[in-house]
Amino acid sequence: MPVSISKASTVSSGYRVSTPHGVKAKHTSMLNAMRQKRLLEGVEHGWKPTGAKPKKKKKKVGGY
Hints:
Layout: E1 4-7, E2 15-19, E3 22-28, H1 30-44
Antiparallel strand pairs: 1-2, 2-3
């Protein structure tokens, strides 16, 4: 499912996120449009959002 970001009409400002199944967002900022595109592509490939924040990686201490 290709996700496309396009500039909204000349009358209004912002961007539109759309797929072949319809428009997913209107009048959004470029940053939010890129974020939604990544979300939709991830869901298409089997990722299931949980709402949890990502875990931080632990740093290695010492090299002995």
